[in-house]
TrEMBL record:
InterPro entries: MCP_dom_sf (IPR023395), MCP_transmembrane (IPR018108), Mito_Metabolite_Transporter (IPR050391)
Natural source organism: Raphidocelis subcapitata
UniProt-recorded name of the protein: Mitochondrial substrate carrier protein family
Similarity remark: Belongs to the mitochondrial carrier (TC 2.A.29) family.
Keyword Secreted: no
């Protein structure tokens, strides 16, 4: 919705700026309107094309990162499911070794098709909508400030940290709401007791048991996690990049991207790990929990506060590299597409 409003706002704003031009020698303003509209049409289309470039470059970068880190995602999921079954967790490395020894190397790539599909859709939406949403919020704030200042022109200030967090929250929430079924199917396929032969088989089993609505089981913690993840990832990277470049004098280089992405991965993991644990339990438990709050209460009663950080090492070992790959690939794809750097 934010992206659609952004495109519409750009088109109206440009039409308004031409429509307010004074007429010459009493010429009727109506005569200029068709030409103005003809000029504005390709500009509005250009805004839509730029939004599509944002979505495509973001989806490709997240899809690439997802494919690279899928084995770590499988290990993380298994560790969290062991906790749900009250079984002792042998640790990150031992869990990975056990998976390969018992199920073969191919088990580390379970759930890859829905994971990549989710990366293309979910990643494209949550990262692709971030910059347009941030700019839209910032422009509205600047318009309000300009009206309050009686039209006094001033240099636009960079978006505040609050604006960046809000933009990430909105874009992440929209993305999660639309792509939650692919996340549920991915987790079902990665479970140790999985009996499904394919992503479609898993999705069909869910619909037969719980109806179409069952595909959105656990969507609430997933939506909250996506909002927190996108807000922490995008806002941290955005803010860290600006501050690091100002403090060190570094340019918009690969070294800058790597430094910011490493810090972003840690911050995002710290913020989302508790939500990720609740979400994973709800995806696997079906209708056992009345909601995310009930699930969180049971986790706390059984494992204490530390239970919400279970699998942190595995989560960071996946989300850290995934964040690095995502942002570094995204920066290069944006440069190739002619988009402004993140």
């Amino acid at each position: 919705m934010a992206a659609g409003a952004l495109v519409e706002d750009l088109a109206v704003e440009r039409m308004g700026s031409h429509g307010d031009a004074p007429s010459v020698a009493g010429a009727a303003p109506q005569r200029a309107a068709p030409a103005v509209q003809a000029q504005d049409a390709p500009r509005a289309a250009g805004s839509e094309g730029m939004l599509m470039q944002e979505l495509v470059t973001s989806g490709l970068s997240v899809g690439c990162a997802t494919a690279v880190t899928n084995p770590l995602d499988v290990v993380k999921t298994r560790m969290q499911l062991r906790q749900a079954q009250s079984a002792p967790s042998p640790g990150l490395v031992k869990t990975g070794v056990d998976i390969v020894r018992i199920e073969g190397v191919g088990a580390l790539w379970k759930g890859l098709p829905p994971a990549v599909l989710r990366g293309l859709l979910y990643g494209g939406l949550r990262l692709g909508l971030y910059s347009p949403t941030r700019d839209w919020l910032q422009r509205d704030a600047a318009d309000a400030a300009g009206a309050a200042g009686a039209g006094i022109a001033s240099k636009p200030a960079p978006a505040s940290a609050g604006t960046k967090l809000l933009a990430g929250t909105l874009s992440g929430g929209v993305a999660a709401a639309l792509s939650s079924p692919t996340e549920l199917v991915k987790v079902r396929l990665q479970a140790a007791d999985n009996v499904h032969k394919s992503a479609w088989d898993a999705a069909r089993a869910v619909m037969e048991a719980d109806g179409v609505r069952g595909l959105w089981k656990g969507a609430t913690p997933g939506l909250v996690r996506a909002s927190v993840l996108t807000a922490s990832q995008c806002a941290t990277y955005d803010e860290a990049k600006r501050r690091i470049m100002d403090a060190t004098g570094w340019g918009d280089t690969v070294a800058t991207h790597l430094t910011c992405a490493l810090a972003t991965g840690f911050a995002a993991t710290l913020a989302t790990n508790p939500i990720d644990v609740v979400k994973t339990h709800m995806f696997v438990a079906g209708g056992r929990f009345a909601g995310p709050v009930a699930c969180a209460r049971e986790l706390y009663a059984r494992h204490g506060a530390g239970g919400f950080m279970r699998g942190f090492a595995a989560n960071y070992s996946r989300l850290g590299p995934q964040t690095v790959v995502t942002f570094m690939v995204a920066e290069q794809l944006r440069r190739i597409a002619g988009l402004q750097s993140l």
